[in-house]
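This week, think about what follows.
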Amino acid sequence: GDHSYAYKLLKKMVKCGHTPGYVVYNILIGSICGDKDSLSCDLLELAEKAYSEMLATGNVLNKINVSSFTRCLCSAGKYEKAFTVI
């Protein structure tokens, strides 16, 4: 999928006054991190941005968004950062 476009839509939602909920972030982060074989540095950076923004907006963490993001970090070899997320 076009993850950059999905992220731009998320930003547009915010700009229009809508606050994306955790489900939106779960879908975005899950789709970025879903195919660990094609995870590029750009996609990892996009997942990190989305996760940080999710935290900044006060969205509730749950096992889906935490496990998706930690799986993404581990796929990229960022084990220490993944441990801090857990």
About this structure: The chain has a mean pLDDT of 89. The chain has five helices and no strands.
